[in-house]
Specification:
Distance between the termini: 43 Å
Strand content: 5-15%
Oligomer: single chain
Shape: globular
Largest sheet: 7 strands, mixed
Order of helices and strands: HHHHHHHEEEEHHEHEHEHHHH
């Protein structure tokens, strides 16, 4: 049925965000109660449909079964990296040249030559800043255990938001290494012979991240502790034996807008190719390249211009009763647009770090 001829009753039961239609108004209310639509979701620049992730938006625009009108416009004016819609083909070409980033294998060459993989000191900054400093971390794992399948951190890199190396060192695991995984890590036995013991690396990184702030005092705003960016941070921090509050981590493997439509994680290799426009993790892998990729993804997500809200999360106490069951009658009197206006996100959008 042509959307222009839809009945007023059908439109009244149509979600203003994802455009799903419901037979009954109470079903729409229940959908809004559980969907957590918000201004922080990726939105089609053509039809304004809200999508749960950028992968879902990509499928809507250029997937196997796209919305044809949106696909036609996107093919003419859409950026294939950030999925924005530009004013015309020329504007798209200029924008896409800026949007596609250059591999850190080229841009970071001077930094890596200067540090040569062995910058082993970390400093604590006691100055207070309005916004926390941001750093990215990546590790390369060697193998332990009888079959070499146990991940052990053999190399770690930390960079700042300007892609400068802060810490880059080989790590001596606490148990014998049975597989150096040289084909991907580039690590040999001689690299770890005189490397820093894991316990020392753990203490250095823990102190650096907390930056003089007691763990129990760390909070998102007004704290000296640093925001930590990475991909698969739970695994990396576990292998480093570092504990750090979840409110200060930004994981590109678990960030809903960067996940698959199935709600599973995308690989960092895919995210870099799809959203930054270059390839990583080919042959021997450098943790510096992974750090740069995660930092660039974080900065791109952080730079999104979303409408500012005083209480942006569904978990905020002020939003607890937005869709309370005792408001059912009141909610059913609202238009779909009014229901969307009081709906809030169930995840922390990185644009809130600005």
């Amino acid at each position: 049925m042509d959307y222009r001829t839809e009945s007023s009753e059908t439109l009244r039961n149509k979600c203003a965000a994802c455009f799903r239609q419901f037979n009954r108004l109470e079903h729409l209310v229940e959908h809004m109660r559980t969907s957590y639509h918000s201004v922080h979701e990726p939105v089609c620049g053509i039809c304004k449909k809200h999508c749960r992730s950028f992968e879902s938006l990509r499928e809507h625009l250029i997937g196997p079964l796209p919305k044809q009108e949106c696909k036609n416009v996107f093919n003419n004016r859409g950026c294939r990296f950030c999925l924005a819609i530009l004013d015309g083909p020329n504007a798209r070409r200029l924008h896409q040249e800026r949007c596609q980033m250059v591999s850190s294998a080229t841009t970071g060459l001077n930094a890596r030559l200067a540090n040569l993989g062995v910058r082993e000191s970390l400093t604590i900054d006691n100055t207070h800043t309005r916004d926390p400093q941001v750093v990215a971390i990546a590790c390369k794992m060697v193998g332990g255990g009888s079959d070499g399948s146990l991940d052990l951190c053999g190399r770690v890199c930390i960079i700042d938001e300007y892609e400068n190396i802060i810490f880059h060192a080989y790590v001596k695991p606490p148990i014998p290494v049975t597989s150096y995984r040289y084909e991907t890590t580039g690590i040999r036995q001689e690299h770890l012979r005189d490397a820093i013991p894991l316990k020392q690396v753990q203490r250095k990184i823990q102190d650096f991240l907390c930056n003089g702030e007691p763990m129990w005092k760390i909070r998102p705003r007004g704290s000296r502790a640093r925001i930590l960016v990475g991909h698969g941070l739970d695994h990396d921090l576990d292998r480093l034996q570092v504990e750090y509050p979840a409110i200060m981590t930004r994981d590109t493997a678990k960030y809903p807008p960067l996940m698959k439509t199935s709600k599973l994680s995308n690989s960092l290799k895919y995210l870099t190719q799809a959203y930054l426009g270059y390839d990583i993790q080919i042959g021997i892998q450098d943790p510096y390249d992974d750090c740069v990729a995660t930092m660039r993804l974080y900065m791109r997500m952080k730079s999104q211009a979303h409408k500012r809200e005083d209480y942006p999360l569904a978990s905020d106490p002020q939003n607890r009763n937005n869709y309370a069951s005792w408001r059912q009658t009141e909610l059913e009197r609202m238009s779909p647009e009014e229901m969307l206006a009081i709906s809030r996100s169930d995840y922390y959008c990185w644009c809130l770090d600005r």
